[in-house]
Structures are given as structure tokens and as C-alpha cells.
Specification:
By secondary structure, the protein is mostly helical. The chain is 82% helix and 0% strand. The two termini are 21 Å apart.
Length: 172
């Protein structure tokens, strides 16, 4: 069914990302992305020339960045993502998907800051209106995970749209 072990691992990692996009939120999302990263890194260790696996790793680390609770951790994930996207672009300089992914990744910290600002404003508004404290505190926490899930889904949709417009980031 699979040409080799790296192909099997790449498919398993990609499947975990799609599972995340459709079914996971909160800490389940973190675990799902971490599992995908592990499988994709295994695929790369077997076949280091798999730019498709590197591209998926870049997307996974970008998603982890948006799910991070603090800016320092988010920036670490965004930097890892940028390294993978740069490597893809170096291997295939004419691939528009890789160029767009790198451009978007460079903007990720700015988007992260904006999302965090919006979340803080919403949290402050909830505290003023009486929400976010007592037994409603769990609902507020769940709201943040929902927002992070939607941001991740949006990032994946953008990636799919880029693939459909720019061609598949297939192995050269």
C-alpha cells in the first residue's frame, strides 16, 4: 500500500492533522499535533528529502504556536515552523505554496498578539459582566480552547486553499 516507511509515517502524520482539524480541541488538540509532529519527524529521519513532510511540520508547529498560552512558547513554535518552511523553499524555490507558507509564518507572531489581545478584551468584558468567575470559570477556559481550535482550523483551511491554488507541495 505504501511505497516505503517514510510514506506510511507521512500519511499517519497528515491524518493526525486532519483529525485535529475536524474533531479535537483543547489539550486533545495539543496531543494530536504532537503525535503528528512525531510521525512526520520519523518520516523525515527516514527520507530527509521529503519536502511535503517538512511543509506539514511547518504547519503543525504554526498550529502549536497559536495554541500556546504564552508568547515565548508561541515564538519558539513559530521559529521552528519558519525553519521548516525556509528549508522547503530552499529545496524548491519556485513552489508558490512554500513561498506563501513562509510569508504567512513570518506574520504569525503579529496574528498571535492580535488574537491574545482580543481574548484578553473578551475576558475583561466577561469579568465586568459577571462571567469568568466562580462556576462559570470553566466555561471561560473552554471558550479560549474553542477560539484556539477555530484559529487552527482556519490555518489548515488556508493551507488547503494554498495547495489548491499553488499546486501540491509534492516531493521533487
Amino acid at each position: 500500500m505504501f511505497a516505503d516507511e517514510s510514506e506510511r509515517l507521512w500519511c499517519a502524520g497528515e491524518e493526525r492533522c486532519w483529525e485535529l482539524a475536524h474533531f479535537k480541541q483543547g489539550s486533545d488538540a495539543d496531543k494530536c499535533i504532537s503525535d503528528a509532529i512525531a510521525k512526520l519527524e520519523q518520516a523525515l529521519s527516514i527520507d530527509p528529502e521529503r519536502t511535503d513532510a517538512e511543509w506539514c511540520l511547518g504547519n503543525a508547529y504554526t498550529s502549536m504556536g497559536f495554541l500556546a498560552a504564552d508568547r515565548k512558547t508561541a515564538l519558539q513554535h513559530f521559529n521552528k515552523a519558519e525553519d521548516y518552511f525556509k528549508h522547503c523553499k530552499e529545496k524548491e524555490p519556485s513552489n508558490e505554496t512554500y513561498k506563501k507558507a513562509l510569508e504567512m509564518c513570518k506574520k504569525a507572531p503579529e496574528y498571535y498578539d492580535e488574537i491574545q489581545s482580543q481574548l484578553q478584551q473578551a475576558q475583561a468584558a466577561g469579568a465586568v459582566s459577571g462571567g469568568g468567575s466562580g462556576k462559570n470559570g470553566g466555561e471561560a477556559n473552554e471558550f479560549w480552547w474553542d477560539v484556539a481550535g477555530w484559529v487552527t482550523l482556519g490555518a489548515i483551511i488556508v493551507g488547503v486553499l494554498m495547495l489548491s491554488k499553488g499546486g501540491s507541495p509534492a516531493k521533487a
